[in-house]
Recover the amino acids of this structure.
């Protein structure tokens, strides 16, 4: 009986050891191998911010964030359709990553030191900024016209979303101008098209989108400031996965698959990018 008990203990120990090794191997495989085995990529994103993420009339996700997800799926599987987009509120971006509900967050996410303490960021795929949008019916055709008007003693009104930095930002853009603050972005655009404001301060990506799609209503003034980087977010403990995503993103912006990024950029921002230069890599020039 004692011999049987001894053998049972040894057997139990061996089984436990085998199980621990299996778990260890699964953990060691990491996120990249998990995604490949699953056969699809899961991306956290939104649906209400053109040109970054929206739903078309067929209920399909579109936008520059969506394009980056498709480019990543193409790199993983050679098929951009092998991706599932999970809609989430902006305040759920980091919690959903940490809870492992999504593989990556692609949702016009600004890279900041504070956020980088919680998650890991990919290389940036866009530099956002604040610009000034004009109406084609306005007497002012470009940014320099606004500055010249203020210097000539005229009143120039800039519509802007209401926030603590609004007045200061307007003065940084056009010193001496008047700020007109609104509760939501839609009212800022209405102020410009109606003539209540001479210009509107909004995200430069939105200006590029609107000026390219609705030139009868909006004009890009040619001004931008306050740069901030947009990047993808991943769990901080998935270095292999982060390395892979960075490889795909760098290649699509500056390497052999550059046409994927350039085509998406032109579609959503109305601007044709040049072919990456040969020689020293683009990001180091």
């Amino acid at each position: 009986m004692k011999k049987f008990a001894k053998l049972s203990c040894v057997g139990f120990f061996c089984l436990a050891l085998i199980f621990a090794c299996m778990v260890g191997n699964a953990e060691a495989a990491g996120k990249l191998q998990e995604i490949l085995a699953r056969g699809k990529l899961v991306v956290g994103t939104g649906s209400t911010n053109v040109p970054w993420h929206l739903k078309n009339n067929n209920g399909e996700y579109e936008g520059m964030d969506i394009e980056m997800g498709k480019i990543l799926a193409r790199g993983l599987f050679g098929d951009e359709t092998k991706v599932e987009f999970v809609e989430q509120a902006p305040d759920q971006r980091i919690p959903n990553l940490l809870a492992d509900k999504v593989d990556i967050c692609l949702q016009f996410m600004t890279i900041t030191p504070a956020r980088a303490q919680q998650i890991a960021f990919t290389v940036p795929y866009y530099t956002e900024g604040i610009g000034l949008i004009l109406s084609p019916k306005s007497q002012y055709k470009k940014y320099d016209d606004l500055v010249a008007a203020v210097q000539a003693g005229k009143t120039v009104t800039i519509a802007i979303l209401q926030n603590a930095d609004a007045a200061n930002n307007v003065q940084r853009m056009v010193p001496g101008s008047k700020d007109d603050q609104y509760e939501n972005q839609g009212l800022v655009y209405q102020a410009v098209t109606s003539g209540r404001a001479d210009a509107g301060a909004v995200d430069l990506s939105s200006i590029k989108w609107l000026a390219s799609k609705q030139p009868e209503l909006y004009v890009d003034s040619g001004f931008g400031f306050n740069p901030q980087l947009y990047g993808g977010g991943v769990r901080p403990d998935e270095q292999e996965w982060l390395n892979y995503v960075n490889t795909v993103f760098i290649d699509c912006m500056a390497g052999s698959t550059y046409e994927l990024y350039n085509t998406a950029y032109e579609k959503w921002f109305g601007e044709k990018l040049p072919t990456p230069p040969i020689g020293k890599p683009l990001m180091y020039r």
In short: The chain has two domains: 32-125+231-284, 129-227. Confidence is low (pLDDT under 50) at residues 1-27.
